[in-house]
Write a structure and sequence with these properties.
9 helices; 0% strand
């Protein structure tokens, strides 16, 4: 039996395909290359279709920024079943699979772009503040230090200086020392 699908499912699929096109452009060419026209071409839809979902480039980038963060949140939630909340949060920042590496590159490109966009920089800062607040509840005053450690280690996995396993082991050791 096929699953029942409604208008909302098709809407979500088209919106998701457009956001995926944004991720592809950012990952391969950088955030500065995103335009409604280029996204429409990459997604195989009309410019009008993109503008139906995202009236402006800023709307498109803000939605994509939120979507990439939501993907990270979903990965953390999936990992909660197998580790402590602090470990799940910090080790999930370290990309292990090729898809996670791509998501991390896209998220980093968004963070760089956000630094020049007042609305996005507020969202970025708020997200990090909330993460630090949560980590402080979970592991105490070393939250900022461990977050910075995990983010730095994540970059070292992208360059090949560390494996994800090595980076995650370092994070776990830091949690044990401070937790």
């Amino acid at each position: 039996m096929k699953p029942v699908r409604g208008r909302g499912a098709a809407h979500d699929e088209r919106r998701g395909a457009i956001l995926e096109a944004v991720f592809e452009i950012i990952d391969t060419e950088g955030a500065h290359q995103v335009s409604i026209r280029r996204v429409a071409e990459r997604a195989g839809v009309s410019v009008g279709r993109v503008q139906h979902y995202f009236p402006s480039k800023d709307d498109l980038l803000t939605a994509a920024f939120t979507a990439i963060n939501d993907l990270g949140t979903a990965r953390v939630q999936a990992r909660l079943a197998e580790s402590s909340p602090a470990e799940a949060l910090l080790t999930e920042l370290i990309p292990g699979t090729e898809e996670e590496r791509r998501q991390f590159r896209v998220a980093q490109a968004f963070e760089t772009h956000a630094l020049t966009n007042p609305d996005l920089v507020v969202q970025l800062r708020r997200g990090y503040d909330e993460l630090v607040d949560l980590l402080t509840v979970l592991i105490g005053p070393a939250a900022k230090e461990l977050l910075a450690l995990a983010l730095g280690l994540a970059h070292l996995t992208l360059t090949g200086n560390l494996t994800p396993e090595e980076a995650r082991a370092i994070v776990r050791s830091g949690i044990e020392k401070h937790g």
